[in-house]
Design brief:
251 residues, mainly alpha, 78% helix, 0% strand
Length: 251
């Protein structure tokens, strides 16, 4: 990774910077979904700080991962654990307490929302970091400039998605399914190098490829179904208890 001062008058520099920004915006779609889902039940007072904090956390993690990418890819079972964690986050967000309309419960979850965003971003930023490092050709200055410039766009996208999720709650299920899909896909590629057609023998990815045709897609679909089914089941099982609690408080 080099940090040579770039030639600002060079068209090559600006083209490369544009490529990094576009790549980061495209790759940040899943991060924006996580931020929006984690913040959708917060009060107006706490929603904006959580979105800004989560967006900044996503960028910082991506910068760190870009510089540590070689080491991270050598850690065994990292993607397997990360994918399972992402699936758990998807279930948790679908089963999240909607609050009782007074904003008290939501306000108390500010740091919980920020923590959820950071943990989920840590999982999803691994593959994103690989793509960004490749697009920047290991130019450290370009990577940092591109990511910093992308921050306002990620914040705007997360804010817009939060409003949409509040207006159309059914989309929360789709967001949970997306997290499950990404989690299953991440788990299925454990041990497989980026852009490789075949996984090395002895890895989880290689074992799945031998046992299951189109393993990545199958695992991704299984993750999406698992998150939606378990998340909705836990949510509906909790609702009768919530109704009883509210009735007792009114009495």
């Amino acid at each position: 990774m080099n940090f040579v001062m770039p030639d600002l008058a060079s068209a090559v520099f600006w083209l490369a910077l544009g490529k990094i920004i576009v790549a980061n915006i495209i790759l940040s779609g899943d991060n924006a979904v996580v931020i929006a889902m984690a913040c959708r039940n917060l009060s107006d007072q706490h929603r904006k700080p959580a979105i800004i904090g989560g967006s900044l956390g996503a960028i910082v993690l991506r910068i760190i991962f870009v510089f540590m990418i070689t080491w991270l890819l050598s850690v065994p079972y990292l993607k397997l654990i990360g994918g399972a964690l992402l699936i758990w986050i998807g279930v948790k967000l679908l089963n999240e307490d909607e609050g009782h309309g007074d904003g008290v419960k939501a306000s108390g979850n500010l740091w919980g929302a920020v923590w959820t965003i950071i943990v989920a971003d840590a999982v999803m930023s691994l593959d994103n970091a690989i793509a960004i490092a490749a697009a920047a050709n290991n130019d450290g200055v370009l990577i940092m400039l591109g990511l910093v410039i992308s921050i306002p766009i990620i914040i705007f996208g997360s804010t817009l998605l939060t409003s949409i999720l509040q207006r159309y709650p059914v989309l929360v299920v789709i967001g949970g399914a997306l997290l499950g899909w990404i989690g299953g896909e991440v788990m299925a590629t454990d041990g497989k190098p980026p852009n490789a057609l075949v996984a090395p023998e002895g890895t989880i990815a290689a074992w799945l490829e031998h046992k299951i045709p189109h393993a990545e897609h199958v695992c991704a679909l299984a993750g999406a179904v698992f998150v939606v089914v378990l998340g909705l089941y836990l949510s509906r099982r909790r609702k009768p208890a919530d109704v009883v609690d509210l009735a007792e408080k009114k009495d």
